[in-house]
Amino acid sequence: MAGPGLRVGMIGCGDVGERSATGLRDADHTELAGVVDIDKVVARTLGEAYNVPWSRDPAELLARSDVDAVYVAVPNHLLSSIVIQAAQAGKHVLCEKPMATSLADADRMLAACSEAHVSLGVAFEAQVTPELQRLHRIIAAGGIGNIIGTRIIAMLDKPDTYWAYGYDHRTATNWRSSKSKAGGGMLITTHIHDINTVRYLTGLEARRIYVEYGTFVTQVEVEDLAFATIRYDNGAVGLIEGSSCIKGNGMDRDVANYIYGSEGQVRLADTLSIYTTREVDGLSPGIWHEIGKPPDSLAVGRVRVMDGFGSAVLEGRPLPVSGRDGRAALAVALTAYQAGAQGIPVDVDMGQTY
């Protein structure tokens, strides 16, 4: 810790609990002030491991005067109520994705934080990743010309244990398999990260979506395979290909994001790379350039998220990932579900400005 940091309490100690607690502790501009989880053993274990107060009741944490902000990482359907409760207690909020399971809840969260004059951020990593920040600047400067298309691919094979324990196996819970609790499957839980990344890099807003999806292999209520098409506000088109049940793929095959421009393209996969026909940002035209690689550890991303949030709140700057950013990504996923259910293309509800 370089100096006094934003004192952040954590509500929800499940799947990403330990990584997030470490991120809050290790970031230069935050410090972990306490942890809360409905599971007494999980809360106590994490609290004792990080030498901070622990509780089963969010109200206890929100009542503390030595807590400036909260990081909320509970099951998707509970995010909105706790964020609103935190805002009403005067705490700044960093919320896990997907922010909510309905746009109405997302709008209530935005309104509550606006009325309480507290910041609302969402824990996406693209905006705080240095290599993606550079690509954002290059694209904004016209480095790949006019954006004409995007492609998001994640054809995974999530293990059966994911649906009962998540990836870290910290708690036993089945909310990920429930449509009402999770909000959906691949589109809202996995691809929402990619949707945010592509939106950040291109500056484009999705305007119309059509999708076909289904549950073919997995014994869950949510989709395990989906294909979506997007029309953006500049006329570009996009494609999302997602699955959690493709045998032989594991968690690392057929995973990439592409952005296609009139003068080049960007590929985000095992390496982050760009091809451009222009001289821009020190890049030679006509060849591929490697911008960097994704972090070797998931913990690196957590530190960046926490530090970006903490420094912005302390310095009174706009958050790197705002609640509006979170709503925009959520709107794409939820519009896709609506389009699939109705069997027609559906316009995206972009909401109002708070």
Which keywords apply here?
6-stranded parallel β-sheet, 9-stranded mixed β-sheet, about 350 residues, Rossmann fold, Dihydrodipicolinate Reductase, domain 2, 15 strands, alpha/beta
Task: Set out the fold topology.
Elements: E1 6-11, H1 17-26, E2 30-36, H2 40-49, E3 54-55, H3 58-62, E4 69-72, H4 79-88, E5 92-95, H5 103-116, E6 120-122, H6 130-140, E7 147-155, H7 162-165, H8 179-182, H9 186-189, H10 191-202, E8 206-214, E9 225-232, E10 237-243, E11 255-261, E12 264-268, E13 272-276, E14 288-292, H11 298-315, H12 323-342, E15 346-347
Parallel strand pairs: 1-2, 1-4, 2-3, 4-5, 5-6, 7-10
Antiparallel strand pairs: 7-11, 8-9, 8-15, 9-10, 11-12, 12-13, 13-14
Helix pairs in contact: 1-11, 4-5, 5-12, 6-10, 10-12
